[in-house]
Amino acid sequence: MGYEMTRKKRRMEQWQHPEKHEMTKIEEDEANLDDGSPVDSTDSELETAGTVKPKKRKGQGWSPTNREFRYKQFVGRQDKLYILKKDENDKLVEEELADLVVIEKIYENIDDNTFELLLKYWYLNQWRELSIKRSQLQLNELTKLLDYGIDVPNYKASQIARFLSLQEKDAPLHKSHRHLGWADRKGELVYKHQELLGRNLLDSSTYEGNLLLQKGTFEGWKQVIKQEVLGHTPLEFALTCGFAAPLVSLIAKLVDLEVLIFHAFGDSAQGKTTAGRVFVSPFGLPSKREGGLILQWLATKNGLVGQIKQKHGLPLVLDEASMNRMSDFTDILYLLAEGREKARMTKEIQERERASWSGVFFSTAEHSLHQKSNQNSGLLVRLQEKGNVPWTRSAENATEIKEGLLKHYGHAGPKFIEFLLKTGKDAILNIWKKWSEICYGKMVVKDGLSRRIADKFALILATADLMNQCFDFSVNKDGILEFLLEMDQENAKGRDLGERAYQYLRQIVVQHQMRFIKADDKPNGEIWGKMTRGYDRKIEVAFLQEPFKKLLSDGGFDDYSVVLRKLKEKGYLDHERDKNTRKRNVNPTTNKRELVYCINFDNSFEKLLNGVTLSSSQVQTAPRKSKGSNKVSLTEDHDFPEEP
Fold first, then answer.
1. Residues 6+ apart with CB under 8 A from 641
2. Residue 333 is inside which H or E element, if any?
3. What is the tens place of the pLDDT at every residue in 30-85?
């Protein structure tokens, strides 16, 4: 106590009268202990009554079997940290400083070259661990660790920080990553999985994220695949799509390529989720639970981006879109296909770093996503759907797959990655191009989007080709090709924008007949247009311009001018030369001719109108012969008598 009072008095005098202060021998010794120079563990002054001579153990750090060490004036023994001080007799003695806390490991994150520290500390009669950022060793941050049980109150913080700074140099370094998939590492292409994969690795790294990437054995996984998956084309397709994720991501680094999205919809008993388990099993836990690669559509857009970001070439399932309350999936589907989030600015008006991803998504729901999205053709290319498919052979088949893959997963993917690296980018590109030509040539119905779709399907077929070379089992490439072609033909029916708009407007008119004037009806409420029978007995529906635009917008058709052009190309739009409109007298009470969009439906349409008989007494469009010519012109409106 006397020594402490004397020291405090000297330090007070030094602060008040620094010009009069002279450093004493005790303070010189304390300064020497704290100057950062090594301390010789054989120093006779360290021999203290009733204590064991502490030793500094370089390069070993702390462990339960190595419970005694020294770093300059700090001594660690058992669960306590001591500090060496000189007593009144100028002899070093140990003074208890705090419950022991040490840096157990240092983790270097190779994703962004930052460091985290794993602290091991004693609290309430047991050892505990806590990971912190290295910046939390600052005094103002260190004291916040009190909440976790670390003995670091304000009056101890500076000494604890000094001790940890010294001890940190001997803590073992482990390199780790949280991002998954393809990346450039020191000029080399690598793939981040449970371990770092590459051909010319200069170092190693271990995954430290919250996903579960490996369990069981490759042989165990392969046995499940051979017994329960092979021989059933839908499951072989799902398996191949999973292996396609790294291939798609790899090719996307070389050419402009979007993320592939496959959507399976239909009744819940068809095995869609089981197909999703097969899809992700080569690379990680095939489960919806924490750590699994089966994600929920139920998340918000930002939540979903948070789960998929910085994953390049890792297959992911988006399960049960039916659970999501979104009425329109358009924006999120475009976002997923784009492969990166929208640009955002910081408070300093600088572009914020954007999250990105690439590969393949496998989506499931009871309903079609096309039906809950806008009608743009671009989305029909980005999203490929397959409905009402028996994904599994039976309930027993689904159970065996689930139980087997939960025991064995995540080993086949790395083997395929190593095979891709060995094969090389040029060979992979050539295989892809070969299958693109085969796929396009096999398409029965072709349109302006078929070439792009063939390129996408070829990625799956190229993967099947490479899988058969990599493993000692084979998937049926011809069966997968046929599966893809069937999918294309089903989706092709909906890719014709003009036809889709025509069928949509036909449905709207039938459902809302009361909004359209027939013959000499009197207006009753809001009017959208007028229905009459044309000269060729087709049914003409003249839409007022504003209701027409709103109806298209409500139906998911973003650009009405594009729709009009497509309707014109299909011959459904009756119009004046170089225009999209005609003039019609829609409202009989005003007797005013207005510019309208005239859509012609065949005469079978009249049968859907609740027995309503349409008049043809209104102004109609008919052929007109030009003077001195037998040629017919359709450029003017004429009145024709009502048909008998």
1. 617
2. helix 330-338
3. 444 444 333 433 333 333 333 434 444 443 444 544 568 899 999 999 999 999 99
Tokens 């999985």 locate to 193
Can you tell me the distance from the alpha carbon of 281 to that of 414, in angstroms, rounded to the nearest whole number? 12
Residue with tokens 């490991």: 105
pLDDT one-digit tens code per residue, 376-435: 666 778 889 999 899 999 999 999 999 999 999 999 999 999 999 999 999 999 999 999
Q: Which residues contact 425 (CB under 8 A, 6 or more apart)?
A: 250, 254
pTM over 0.85: no
The encoded tokens of residue 321 equal 């879109």
Instruction: Let me know if 442 is exposed, middle or buried by CB neighbors in 10 A (0-12, 13-18, 19+).
Output: middle
Return the residue matching tokens 């190593």.
418
Q: What is the rounded CA–CA span in Å between residue 206 and residue 196?
A: 7
pLDDT band at 603 (very low <50, low <70, confident <90, very high): confident
DSSP string, 207-229: E-SS----BS-HHHHHHHIIIII
- Is residue 209 within 8 Å of 264, Cβ to Cβ? no
Residue 170: exposure state from Cβ atoms within 10 A (0-12, 13-18, ≥19): middle
Using DSSP bridges, classify how beta strands 620-621 and 637-638 pair: parallel, antiparallel or unpaired: antiparallel
DSSP 66: B
The residue written with tokens 């050419």 in the block is 255
